[in-house]
Design goal:
With 236 residues, the protein is α+β, with helices and mostly antiparallel strands. The protein is built from 4 helices and 14 strands. A hairpin with a 5-residue loop joins β6 (117-118) and β7. 32% of the residues are buried.
Length: 236
Protein backbone atom coordinates (compact mmCIF):
# COMPACT_ATOMS: atom_id res chain seq x y z
CA UNK A 1 0.00 0.00 0.00
CA UNK A 2 1.40 3.39 -0.96
CA UNK A 3 0.85 6.51 1.10
CA UNK A 4 0.71 9.90 -0.57
CA UNK A 5 1.74 13.02 1.32
CA UNK A 6 -1.06 15.54 1.72
CA UNK A 7 0.13 18.98 0.59
CA UNK A 8 -0.39 21.89 2.97
CA UNK A 9 -3.33 24.20 2.29
CA UNK A 10 -2.47 26.87 -0.25
CA UNK A 11 -3.20 30.40 0.94
CA UNK A 12 -5.00 32.66 -1.53
CA UNK A 13 -2.75 34.74 -3.80
CA UNK A 14 -1.62 38.18 -2.76
CA UNK A 15 0.13 39.53 0.33
CA UNK A 16 -0.20 37.65 3.59
CA UNK A 17 -1.29 40.16 6.23
CA UNK A 18 -0.98 39.53 9.97
CA UNK A 19 -2.35 41.62 12.83
CA UNK A 20 -0.06 43.96 14.75
CA UNK A 21 -0.32 43.23 18.48
CA UNK A 22 -0.29 45.64 21.40
CA UNK A 23 2.65 46.31 23.72
CA UNK A 24 2.10 43.08 25.67
CA UNK A 25 2.22 40.93 22.53
CA UNK A 26 -0.39 38.78 20.86
CA UNK A 27 -3.60 37.88 22.68
CA UNK A 28 -6.53 35.58 21.93
CA UNK A 29 -8.35 38.53 20.36
CA UNK A 30 -5.71 38.66 17.60
CA UNK A 31 -6.43 35.09 16.52
CA UNK A 32 -9.64 36.08 14.72
CA UNK A 33 -7.61 38.32 12.37
CA UNK A 34 -5.13 35.69 11.21
CA UNK A 35 -4.93 35.23 7.42
CA UNK A 36 -6.43 32.21 5.67
CA UNK A 37 -3.99 29.29 5.54
CA UNK A 38 -2.09 30.25 8.69
CA UNK A 39 -2.86 26.89 10.32
CA UNK A 40 -3.04 26.03 14.02
CA UNK A 41 -2.20 28.95 16.32
CA UNK A 42 -0.78 29.09 19.83
CA UNK A 43 0.40 32.02 21.92
CA UNK A 44 3.43 31.70 24.23
CA UNK A 45 4.45 34.77 26.26
CA UNK A 46 2.80 37.01 23.68
CA UNK A 47 4.56 35.34 20.72
CA UNK A 48 2.40 33.75 18.03
CA UNK A 49 3.30 30.19 16.99
CA UNK A 50 1.71 28.83 13.82
CA UNK A 51 1.87 25.27 12.55
CA UNK A 52 0.18 23.39 9.72
CA UNK A 53 0.50 20.06 7.96
CA UNK A 54 3.60 20.14 5.77
CA UNK A 55 4.97 23.16 7.62
CA UNK A 56 5.82 26.63 6.42
CA UNK A 57 8.70 27.52 4.12
CA UNK A 58 10.68 30.60 3.14
CA UNK A 59 8.21 31.06 0.27
CA UNK A 60 5.57 31.87 2.87
CA UNK A 61 7.87 34.46 4.43
CA UNK A 62 8.32 36.11 1.06
CA UNK A 63 4.55 36.66 0.83
CA UNK A 64 4.44 38.70 4.05
CA UNK A 65 4.89 42.43 3.38
CA UNK A 66 7.30 44.29 5.63
CA UNK A 67 6.65 47.37 7.66
CA UNK A 68 4.10 46.05 10.15
CA UNK A 69 6.64 45.92 12.98
CA UNK A 70 6.37 42.17 13.52
CA UNK A 71 9.30 39.78 13.26
CA UNK A 72 8.72 36.60 11.23
CA UNK A 73 10.93 33.54 11.72
CA UNK A 74 10.80 29.86 10.81
CA UNK A 75 11.81 27.12 13.21
CA UNK A 76 11.62 23.64 11.66
CA UNK A 77 8.64 24.71 9.56
CA UNK A 78 6.82 26.49 12.41
CA UNK A 79 6.09 30.16 11.78
CA UNK A 80 7.01 32.34 14.76
CA UNK A 81 5.57 35.85 14.81
CA UNK A 82 6.99 38.18 17.46
CA UNK A 83 5.73 41.67 18.29
CA UNK A 84 7.90 44.72 17.72
CA UNK A 85 10.46 45.21 20.53
CA UNK A 86 10.24 48.20 22.87
CA UNK A 87 12.65 51.08 23.29
CA UNK A 88 14.90 49.46 25.99
CA UNK A 89 15.43 46.51 23.65
CA UNK A 90 16.32 48.78 20.73
CA UNK A 91 18.76 50.82 22.83
CA UNK A 92 20.66 47.69 23.89
CA UNK A 93 20.77 46.34 20.32
CA UNK A 94 22.12 49.63 18.95
CA UNK A 95 24.69 50.08 21.73
CA UNK A 96 25.92 46.49 21.47
CA UNK A 97 26.32 46.69 17.70
CA UNK A 98 28.28 49.93 18.09
CA UNK A 99 30.57 48.52 20.79
CA UNK A 100 31.22 45.29 18.88
CA UNK A 101 31.96 47.21 15.69
CA UNK A 102 34.67 49.17 17.50
CA UNK A 103 36.33 45.92 18.62
CA UNK A 104 35.72 43.84 15.49
CA UNK A 105 38.77 42.72 13.45
CA UNK A 106 38.89 43.74 9.77
CA UNK A 107 37.83 40.33 8.45
CA UNK A 108 34.49 40.41 10.30
CA UNK A 109 31.40 42.61 10.02
CA UNK A 110 28.72 43.47 12.61
CA UNK A 111 25.04 43.79 11.72
CA UNK A 112 22.77 45.53 14.23
CA UNK A 113 19.75 44.95 12.05
CA UNK A 114 20.25 41.31 11.30
CA UNK A 115 19.86 39.67 7.91
CA UNK A 116 18.00 36.39 8.11
CA UNK A 117 20.05 33.31 8.99
CA UNK A 118 18.52 30.53 6.91
CA UNK A 119 19.12 26.80 6.83
CA UNK A 120 17.15 24.98 4.16
CA UNK A 121 13.63 26.02 3.26
CA UNK A 122 12.05 25.48 6.67
CA UNK A 123 14.37 27.50 8.89
CA UNK A 124 14.92 31.26 9.07
CA UNK A 125 16.02 33.21 12.16
CA UNK A 126 16.71 36.91 12.68
CA UNK A 127 19.13 37.49 15.57
CA UNK A 128 19.17 40.98 17.04
CA UNK A 129 22.91 41.30 16.36
CA UNK A 130 25.15 39.08 14.25
CA UNK A 131 28.84 39.04 13.41
CA UNK A 132 29.63 37.59 9.98
CA UNK A 133 32.79 36.96 8.05
CA UNK A 134 33.24 39.69 5.44
CA UNK A 135 33.84 37.02 2.82
CA UNK A 136 30.37 35.64 3.54
CA UNK A 137 28.84 39.11 3.33
CA UNK A 138 30.43 39.64 -0.07
CA UNK A 139 29.33 36.22 -1.31
CA UNK A 140 25.77 36.95 -0.19
CA UNK A 141 25.47 39.68 -2.82
CA UNK A 142 25.15 36.88 -5.38
CA UNK A 143 24.04 33.99 -3.16
CA UNK A 144 21.76 35.14 -0.31
CA UNK A 145 21.86 33.45 3.09
CA UNK A 146 25.14 31.63 2.35
CA UNK A 147 26.56 32.07 5.85
CA UNK A 148 26.77 30.86 9.40
CA UNK A 149 27.45 33.72 11.86
CA UNK A 150 30.50 33.59 14.09
CA UNK A 151 28.38 35.27 16.77
CA UNK A 152 24.61 35.55 17.19
CA UNK A 153 23.06 37.74 19.89
CA UNK A 154 19.46 37.76 21.07
CA UNK A 155 18.24 40.58 23.31
CA UNK A 156 15.35 39.36 25.43
CA UNK A 157 11.90 40.88 25.24
CA UNK A 158 8.97 39.81 27.45
CA UNK A 159 7.59 37.88 24.48
CA UNK A 160 10.89 36.21 23.49
CA UNK A 161 12.33 34.82 26.72
CA UNK A 162 11.27 31.22 26.21
CA UNK A 163 12.24 31.15 22.53
CA UNK A 164 15.64 32.82 23.02
CA UNK A 165 16.75 30.93 26.14
CA UNK A 166 15.64 27.47 25.08
CA UNK A 167 14.51 27.00 21.48
CA UNK A 168 16.93 29.28 19.65
CA UNK A 169 19.82 28.07 21.76
CA UNK A 170 19.31 24.61 20.30
CA UNK A 171 18.81 25.89 16.76
CA UNK A 172 21.99 28.01 16.73
CA UNK A 173 23.94 25.07 18.12
CA UNK A 174 22.59 22.83 15.38
CA UNK A 175 23.61 25.41 12.77
CA UNK A 176 27.14 25.42 14.18
CA UNK A 177 27.20 29.07 15.33
CA UNK A 178 30.36 29.16 17.51
CA UNK A 179 29.14 31.82 19.96
CA UNK A 180 25.70 32.80 21.21
CA UNK A 181 24.99 35.66 23.59
CA UNK A 182 21.72 36.24 25.44
CA UNK A 183 21.23 39.77 26.73
CA UNK A 184 18.57 40.71 29.28
CA UNK A 185 17.88 44.47 29.00
CA UNK A 186 16.15 44.99 32.36
CA UNK A 187 15.30 48.63 33.05
CA UNK A 188 14.94 47.82 36.77
CA UNK A 189 18.18 45.98 37.52
CA UNK A 190 20.22 46.85 34.44
CA UNK A 191 21.32 44.62 31.56
CA UNK A 192 22.95 41.20 31.99
CA UNK A 193 24.81 39.07 29.44
CA UNK A 194 25.11 35.29 29.18
CA UNK A 195 28.00 34.19 26.95
CA UNK A 196 27.71 30.71 25.42
CA UNK A 197 30.40 28.90 23.46
CA UNK A 198 29.75 25.88 21.24
CA UNK A 199 31.46 22.68 22.36
CA UNK A 200 32.52 20.92 19.12
CA UNK A 201 32.72 17.60 20.96
CA UNK A 202 28.98 17.35 21.57
CA UNK A 203 27.52 20.20 19.50
CA UNK A 204 26.00 21.92 22.53
CA UNK A 205 26.59 25.29 24.12
CA UNK A 206 28.55 25.65 27.33
CA UNK A 207 28.03 28.65 29.60
CA UNK A 208 31.29 30.58 29.41
CA UNK A 209 30.14 33.49 31.57
CA UNK A 210 27.07 35.18 33.02
CA UNK A 211 27.77 38.83 33.70
CA UNK A 212 25.51 41.16 35.66
CA UNK A 213 24.91 44.90 35.18
CA UNK A 214 28.02 45.90 37.16
CA UNK A 215 30.33 43.42 35.44
CA UNK A 216 32.50 43.26 32.35
CA UNK A 217 32.21 40.78 29.49
CA UNK A 218 35.65 39.41 28.64
CA UNK A 219 36.04 36.75 25.98
CA UNK A 220 38.43 35.81 23.18
CA UNK A 221 35.96 34.07 20.87
CA UNK A 222 35.07 34.86 18.12
CA UNK A 223 37.46 37.79 18.72
CA UNK A 224 38.82 39.55 21.81
CA UNK A 225 36.04 41.48 23.52
CA UNK A 226 36.09 43.50 26.72
CA UNK A 227 33.02 45.63 27.35
CA UNK A 228 31.19 46.94 30.38
CA UNK A 229 27.66 45.62 30.56
CA UNK A 230 26.45 48.95 31.98
CA UNK A 231 27.44 50.61 28.70
CA UNK A 232 24.68 48.70 26.93
CA UNK A 233 22.10 50.88 28.64
CA UNK A 234 23.95 54.14 28.12
CA UNK A 235 22.84 56.68 25.53
CA UNK A 236 26.18 58.46 25.63
Amino acid sequence: MSVMAVPPPIPPPGPWLFPTPGESGFTADDLVDLPVGSGHAEIVDGTLLLSRQGGFTVDDLDRIPGGDGNRYELIDGMLVVSPAPGMPHQVVVTRLATLLTALCPPDLFVFGSSPAVRKGRRGSLEPDVVVLRKADVTAAFDRPHAWVPVLAVEVLSPSSRTMDRLVKRGIYARLGVPCYWIVGPSTRTGPAVTVLRLDPANGEYLDEASVGPDGTVTTTVPFPVTLRVADLHSLG
